[in-house]
Amino acid sequence: MSIKPKLVLYQILSGTLGNALVFLRPEKARQLSENRIALVHRNKKNMSIPERLMRAALLNKLDKIQDYDTIAEQNRNFWINHSATELFSELEDTFNTDFIPHCTFIFELLKNELSNQPEEFNTIVEIGTGNGDVLNYLSSEFPNINHFIGIDLSQDQIELNNGKYKANKRLEFVASDALDWVRENGSDQTIFVTSRGVLEYFTEPRLQELFKVIHGLGKTIFIAIEPNGADHNFDTNPNSQLYGHEPSFSHNYPKLFKTAGFSLWHFSQKVWYKANDMQTFVGAKN
């Protein structure tokens, strides 16, 4: 038997077992599927084999959502409540397994970009800072920058971060909507960063508005590390499209940055560890 038929057989058997377990253990199935985003992103390392089978069966049963505003509202409601802190905790190991080996190259490129800039940048703002690990890492990599601000929707997570990183006086964590914060507090000479799944929760019009507001601040740099659907061809489909079980939005980042007035100093993509997604890396400046 070739590899592909074996894979198909495995998927059929695992799907059958998963469906059976969902039927036999309805309370566990309810707990696993209590929140759509948590179900999608739940760390399988912390799950038993039966729970993994149930998770796969539940993912296949998720209703399709097509209304973009509904999707954005549901995603925002998740990230703003206490459940987000549990997910940040489960995904904490991805800082070492994904971010460090696969994403830090773009910050080495940023160092070169900054060396060619006549202006000095004094602030790094991370939108969607999560558990703060990335911002803390950046504070060690850019010793000449004095102020590092992490913005997140989750008040609970921000409080945890302020306790965890209280010894690092260069870090500040703020609970806020990113667009609201930039409008009220944004300034030039700032580097904005998103890391591995933040802008995907913005609708295209709201993301375009964010980029325009940041561009209007003056001299800024933006580094976006964001997932894209593997089937999203920017040439044949230049607009944003849905992807994933959550679902979230696969955006055409080069187009959106350029439309807002930025120029790109870096653009690349690589297959993400999820295999069915691409990780997109963008460096933009004005």
Automatic annotation (TrEMBL):
The Methyltransferase domain is annotated at 124-215
What's one Pfam family here? Methyltransf_25
Q: Which species does the entry assign this protein to?
A: Gelidibacter pelagius
In terms of domain of life, where is this protein from?
Answer: Bacteria
SUPFAM superfamilies (alphabetical): S-adenosyl-L-methionine-dependent methyltransferases
Whether Zinc-finger counts among this entry's keywords is no
Matches recorded under InterPro entries: Methyltransf_25 (IPR041698), SAM-dependent_MTases_sf (IPR029063)
Record-level Gene Ontology MF annotations: methyltransferase activity
GO BP terms, alphabetized:
methylation
**Protein name, per record:** Class I SAM-dependent methyltransferase
